[in-house]
Amino acid sequence: MMTGKKSLFMQYLTVSLVIVLVSFVILGTMLVFFVARYSDTEKKDLLIENAQRVSQLVSEQTVIVNNNVHIGDTETSWLSGLMQTISASINADVFITDIKGNTLLCSESSRCRHRQYTVPSDICNQASQQEIFIKTTLDNMYDEPQFLAGVPILTDVGSRKEITGIVFTATDMGTFSTFKGEIMKIFFYASVATFAIVACIIWFFSFKMIKPLRQMSIAAKKLANGDFSVRVPVSSNNEVGTLAKSFNEMADSLSISETTRRNFIANVSHELKTPMTTIAGFIDGILDGTIPQDKQKQYLRIVSNEVKRLSRLVASMLSLSRIDNGELRLNKQPFNISDVVISTLLTFEQKIEQRHIDVKGLESCMTPVTVNGDPDLIYQVVYNLFENAVKFTDKGGYIQVNLAEYTDRTELEIKNSGHGIEPDELVHIFERFYKTDKSRSQDKNGMGLGLYIVKTIMHLHGGDITAQSVVDEYCSFTLWLPKDKPLNPKHIFNKAKNNTVPVISSDGKIISVVETIDEKIED
Questions:
Q1: 518 in the same domain as 439
Q2: Do the strands 370-373 and 333-336 form a parallel or antiparallel pair, or are they unpaired?
Q3: Does residue 425 lie within any of the structural domains?
Q4: Are residues 429 and 355 in the same domain?
Q5: CATH code of the domain covering residue 361
C-alpha cells in the first residue's frame, strides 16, 4: 500500500460498510415509522371500538325526563362495573360526559379525576358530530398527552335520535413510546451484531479480492526494476483472475523482449566489433608496413569482405527500422521467379562447389513462372533462404529446389540436408533476433533478423512462409505467393463522369480504379 494515499482495500471496505450502515439506518427509520403507524391505528381501533360498545349500551338504557338524562334505574351500578372491566382490559380510562363536557360517569369510580374538569367545548362539538381520535391533554386534565377517542351517545326521542352524551376512552401515549423504544432497542442490538458480522465478512472478501492487485503492484515494481522472473499467483476465474493471467502474460512477453534486447545488444556488439577489429588491424598492418606489399592485396580482399559484412548488417537494421515504422512499401509488378531462383543460386556457386553440395530439382525452374510482386524484395527472400541453406548444409549434402504452380498460388520450396532445427526452436525461428545456433559455430554472420524480415515481406505480399525440419536429416522452407484472380467483365462498372470506373473482384472488393473499361481489359 502506498503511504499518504488511501488504499483500494480501505476504500472498498469503507464504502461497503457505509452502504450497510445507511441500509440499517433506513431500515430502522422505516421500522419505527411503520411500527408507530401500526400502533396508532391499532390503538385507535381499540379505543373507538370499546367506546362504541359503551355508547350503544348507554343509549339503550338512557331516558330523558324533563330534559334531564337518566341512565337506567340505578344510574351507575351495572354500567360502572362494565366500564371498569373495559378499562382494565384495554388499559384506558372510560368516562361519559354530557354534551357540555361534564363527566357523568367514570371507570375510576370514587377516584375519578374527570369530575373536577370539563372537557373542552371544541372537543365535545367534534365528538358530537362524529367519532374522533386525537392526541391531547384535555386542557391539562392529564399531565401527559393521551390518545383520546370520543363516540356520541344517540338516544331515541320519539321518532328521532338525539345526542344525549359522549363516551370518551383515553390511554397514556407513554405506554406506546415505551413499546416503540423496546422495538428500537431490539433492532439496535440486532443491527450492531449483524453489522459486526457483515463487517468481518466484507473485510475478509475485500482483502481476498484486493490481494492479487497488491501482488500485481509489487510485481510491477519488480518488473520496473528489471526483475522479469516475478509472476502473480492466479487464484480465481473472475475479472481479477483474468487480470492476473494477463499480467503474467505481459511479464512473459517483457521477459522475452528483455532477453531479445540483451541478445540483440550482444549480437550487434559482436557483429560490429569483429569486422571493425579485423579492418582496423589489417589497415594498420598495411600502413605501418607489418604486412608485406606482396600480401596486401590478399588482406585488402579480407577487409573488403568485412566491409560488405557491415553493409549487410546495416541493410538488415534499416529494413527492420522500415518494418517497425510501417515504411516498407511494395513495388508490385509481374516477373519471372524462375530467373530469380537461378540467378540467386549462381551467386553461391563457389561456396556450393567448395562444400561439394549437390543441387537438386533445378528442372522445376527451367519453365518460366510469372508472379506478381516486388522483384527486389522477393530476391531478398530467396537470397536469404539460399544463404541459410548453403550455410547449414553438411559437406557432401544436398540442396533441393521445388518450384510449383497451383490454382491459387505459386510455391517455392528450398530444402537442405544437415542437422536441422530442434522442435522447440522451430516455433521461434521467424522471431526477430532469434538465432538457433547460440554457439555461433556455423551462424557466425547472422543476427537473427533474416527470417523475420522474410516472413514480413511474404505477409506484405499476401503470402506466407513455413518451415519443417527433422533433426539430423533435413530442414525445409516453403514460401507461397497468391495469384491474382482473373477479371470478370460483369463486375466492371459503367463509366463514371470523370471517365474512370472502379474494378470489382468476384468477392465484391474494389481492385483498382482505371481510366476506361477497354484499358483495364487490355491490361
A1: no
A2: antiparallel
A3: yes
A4: yes
A5: 3.30.565.10
- Among 307, 324, 305, residue whose Cα is nearest residue 449: 324
Same domain, 392 and 257: no
Closest by CA to 447, choosing from 378, 355, 384, is 384
Task: Please enumerate in sequence order all residues whose Cβ is within 8 A of that of 146, keeping only pairs 6 or more positions apart, or say none.
Answer: 135, 136, 137, 138, 170, 171, 172, 173
Domain that holds residue 246: 239-323
| Greater pLDDT, 260 or 155 | 155
State whether 421 and 300 are in the same domain: no
Backbone torsions φ then ψ of 405, nearest 5 degrees: -110, 140
Whether the pTM exceeds 0.85: the reply is no
Closest alpha carbon to 465 in 473, 53, 457: 457
359 and 409 share one domain: yes
Q: For residue range 453-509, list pLDDT tens digits in order.
A: 888 889 888 999 999 999 989 999 999 999 875 444 443 333 333 444 333 333 333
The pLDDT confidence band at residue 437, using thresholds 50, 70 and 90, is: low
Residue position matching grid coordinates 518451415:
467
Q: Are residues 111 and 251 in the same domain?
A: no
**216 found inside a domain:** no
- Assess contact for 142 and 35: CB atoms under 8 A: no
**Cα–Cα nearest to 385, from 296, 322, 447, 476:** 476
DSSP 8-class letter at 99:
T
pLDDT the model gives residue 486: 47
CA distance 220 to 426: 31
Q: Would the pLDDT of 52 be above 80? A: yes
For residue 87, give the 3-state DSSP assignment: helix
Residue 324 makes CB contacts below 8 A (sequence gap 6+) with: none
Give the helix/strand (H/E) hosting 171. strand 160-172
105 and 95 in contact (C-beta within 8 Å)?
yes
